[in-house]
Design a protein that fits this description.
Blueprint lengths: L2 H33 L3 H4 L13 H9 L2 H32 L5 H13 L2 H14 L6 H24 L4 H9 L4 H30 L2 H6 L8 H11 L4 H31 L5
Helix pairs in contact: 1-12, 3-12, 4-7, 4-9, 4-11, 5-7, 7-9, 9-12, 11-12
């Protein structure tokens, strides 16, 4: 097929991609625009520009919605969940990728099944278990279940990525007499940094947006995270749309900032092994 015959198809594909990008971006731009409007500006229409930006909406949302407390709680929960899940996923992924042990395939199948069970199926038993342990209204109630929920995906994701590593490098290390922990620490981890960064970003987004577990296991305002705080903030400010949208921007801003900072590693991790 000649190169000139591919031009209409490439142009059509580019137009479709631009349309999809606009459909994705326009709602977010409207959210940003509404967050800097006054209540009177909102009544003029969704696309009407304000006379001047009302950044005080963000200050009002931050102070009235107690977002300083919720923001801190989200950080306290997200950091240990991401760190522990990546670390444990690295160890279990290494075991499933390279080691032989009894019931290896069965355990891997159980991990896969664990990913398919929705949180709604075990949230009530989890509540009673946490209440029995005295962990209701604690950070531990938010951190431990989310680590447990993240380990199956972390294991499968990193084990698949490790199997894409060049076997010659690992075989050379084994022939040189390197032990398992030396291979993991000196060879596997440096090569796995793009995949680990991608996994960390996935876990950060999922943990930051987690709603059901904090909603069931925490009823003290001092331990609520941002998504849960946004729910109660929405109930108090339903009629004040600019302040409400400013609160929504506060909730999603860390996710966007994190993606912009780590987007190169995120894309590298997703495409790792694609050209093997």
């Amino acid at each position: 097929m000649s190169r000139s015959s591919n031009i209409p198809a490439a142009l059509f594909l580019r137009v479709v991609l631009w349309l999809l990008a606009l459909v994705t971006i326009i709602p977010f731009l409207l959210l940003l625009l509404t967050s800097i409007k006054s209540k009177a500006d909102v009544l003029k229409g969704a696309f009407a520009l304000p006379a001047y930006p009302h950044f005080e909406n963000y200050l009002d949302a931050w102070n009235a919605g107690h977002f300083n407390i919720y923001f801190w709680n989200s950080i306290v929960v997200v950091i240990p969940v991401v760190a522990a899940s990546v670390f444990l996923g690295l160890l279990t992924g290494f075991a499933f990728a390279y080691l032989s042990f009894p019931l290896r395939r069965t355990l891997f199948a159980i991990l896969t099944l664990g990913m398919m069970v929705p949180a709604e199926a075990f949230i009530i038993p989890l509540y009673y278990e946490m209440r029995y342990l005295g962990l209701i209204n604690t950070y531990a109630a938010l951190i431990i279940p989310q680590i447990a929920m993240s380990i199956p995906f972390s294991t499968i994701f990193l084990a698949s990525a490790m199997q894409q590593l060049p076997e010659e490098v690992l075989e050379a290390a084994v022939l040189d007499g390197a032990g398992r922990f030396y291979i993991l620490r000196k060879i596997v981890i440096p090569l796995m940094i793009p995949a680990m960064s991608t996994l960390a970003l996935f876990l950060f987004i999922w943990t930051w947006n987690e709603f059901l577990i904090p909603f069931i296991l925490v009823n003290d305002d001092a331990y609520r995270t941002l998504p849960l705080g946004m729910l109660f903030f929405q109930g108090r400010y339903t009629v004040n749309t600019p302040v409400l949208t400013a609160g929504a921007v506060i909730v999603i801003f860390p996710l966007i900032l994190t993606y912009l900072v780590f987007q190169r590693r995120f894309i590298a991790g997703l495409t790792a092994g694609a050209t093997k």
